[in-house]
Structure formats: structure tokens, C-alpha cells
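Researcher: We're teaching a course module on how sequence relates to structure. For the next exercise, students receive a sequence and then see the predicted structure as C-alpha cells, so they can try to spot secondary structure elements on their own. Here is the exercise chain.
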Amino acid sequence: MKQKGQRGEALYWLDTEELEDGIHFSECLKTMSKERQRKVESCLLMKDKKLSLGAGILMDRGLSAYGLRERETMVAYGEDGKPYLPRHSHIHFNLSHSGSVVMAVFAGVETGCDIEQMQRADLALAERFFTRKEYAFIAGQQGRERQDEAFYRLWTLKESFLKTVGTGLMLPLDAFEITISPEGKIDVCGKKGGVRALNPKEFEFREYPMRGYCAAVCFWKQTGKMQDYGRWKMKELVIDATVENIEKVTEFVDEQLEQLECPMKAQMQINIAIDELFGNIAHYAYHPEVGSATVRVEVMEDPLAVTVTFIDNGVQYDPLAAQEPDTTLSAEERQIGGLGIYMVKKSMDDISYEYREGKNILKIKKNI
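Model: And here is the predicted structure for the students to work with:
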């Protein structure tokens, strides 16, 4: 189902029991991107497979309103795993699931959503991790059923806020406070030692009660970021390791480098390294099959530097172990191969490789 907001934002939800029929499930799966198909197939339980496919279906529905399709749209991940669309920065979205229901929100501003299947609440957990005022709001409700409802209202509101600002649970639950007035007005404020730069007027909350579930959405109406979060530290892209995707990987990394005002020479050197390193993964990691690779861009400060990490689950392969070419020989006399990785070594400030837990992990670092 779909619900449209006053400013163009849209909320979608799906009960994955609709995917119970095996034929319908398979037909829907075929329409998804390769990455989504892999996520679905990696789930062990059928319940989780349906939830993962449901998330893909809602992504496709939401993107279709912008003339896009899930299987054709690149999704990257910021620090703490928040997904975003590097090629469509005007589109913001978020996903959540609980029980058998999946929900998605699309908006023109930063947004986050959360849905929880209601059951008996852990009031001891609320007393430990919520603020005093939040716990008092829950405990002050008449009857256990009303207390359970209050707990899940606050939980989904707090989680939707965390997902909006992109911190996940790295920001303690008691670092900010959600208040619900008797009239139902919802506000957020920072606590001492928590989110000091928080402007409550920038955030708008909405609740969507469903039978047996609590759901909430948060919208960040200002496009800027809270000063406490500072410069982004990490962004991540998961993509099929194919030669055709080298250009997409380069665009993704360039987007991050431009935010850092990276010098053109350093950016070009990093682009050459991407062409060589991601090309190696595309050619050798999964041959003749196709697998996924993770490209992670991280910022280091003092001195300012950027690292790009390439991770794949393919066959073990250390490109740094290759014998360096003899550059004193002419091109005709030199052995074929090795020159590309040699150039990467010379242009980067540091480069390392390790094979850990079944993954090839190659990292380059460039001071900028």
C-alpha cells in the first residue's frame, strides 16, 4: 500500500505474506537487481527471504515515482550503513521491517523510518536506556497494554530519528529525548553531553499505527548536517564486480573526493588505481561467474588523507605479490603484466593487502 504526504513524500508498506505463493515469489525476484537477488538468496529462513524481497519491491515502487527502477539504480552506504543514491542526491529514502511487514519512505529531505511488531515491552530496558522523562511517560500510562503501546511509540520515534541523522545506535538512546504532548505533538531535544547542536524545529515526526504494529517516520527539514557529526568518515558501495561497473565505481569515489576538494592530480591518480584494482577483481575474483565487491571510501584527518578499500569474496589473490616490472627495459623486452599495479604502488602513499575470513581486502591511501 502507499500513502502520499503533503510535500510529495511517500510511504509504502507491504505484508510479505503476499509473497507466500512460490510462483509469485519467483516472478518478483526475477525483476530485482542482481545484488537484491543475492541478498534474498543468502537468507536462510523463508521468512527472511520474503522480507528481503519485500524491501526490494518497495524500493522499486518508490523509485518508479521518479522514473527509476531498483534493478538499474546504484545504492551506496554511508557511515553506519545508511543507504543513499549517489547518482540521485535529491531522492532520500529509508527501509524498515518487523514481523511480516516491510515499510519504505521516500522524500526530498533526509528521512528515516522504523516499524516494530508490538508485544510485551521490556520496561526494564526502557528504564535503563531511555531518558527519565521518556520512562516516566511510559510508566504513567494506565494499564500494561497502554504502557506497551507507549514503549513502542517512543522506540519507533527514536529509531526513526537515529536513522534520519545517519548515526544508527552509535548515538546513545538517552543522548536525545522524544516528547509526546497530550495533544499528540512530537518533539525532539538534545540532552547534556548528547546532541548539543540539535535544532528541534528542523525535525518533523509522523506516526502510523497499524494493527499489531507501531510505525514512525522522521523528516529532517533542513538540508545541512548537525555540527556535532562533523565531516563524513566513511561511505560504501556494494556493486557487481564487472568491467562495465568500473565507471560507476569511479563516479562514486569522485563524488566523495569532490566533497573534500581533492586536488585534481590526486583524484586522477586515484581514478587510475580504481581502474587497475577494480578491473583485477572483475577479471579474476569470480571468473567465469559474477560476484559482488565492496568499495569503501574513508577520510582520515591530521593529515588529511583518503583511503579506498576494495573487498571481495572471490578466490584468494594478492596483486601486490606480483614481480615488479623492470622499467629499464623497453616495452618490447619487458614481460607482459605487472605495470599497472606498479604504477598504483608508486602513486599512492600506502597500499596493503590481506586475506581475512574468506575476503580479499586491498586498501590504498592517498594524502590530500
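Model: If you want an answer key for the exercise: The CA atoms of residues 176 and 190 lie 4 Å apart. Residues 193-197, 223-231, 325-338 have pLDDT under 50 and may be disordered.
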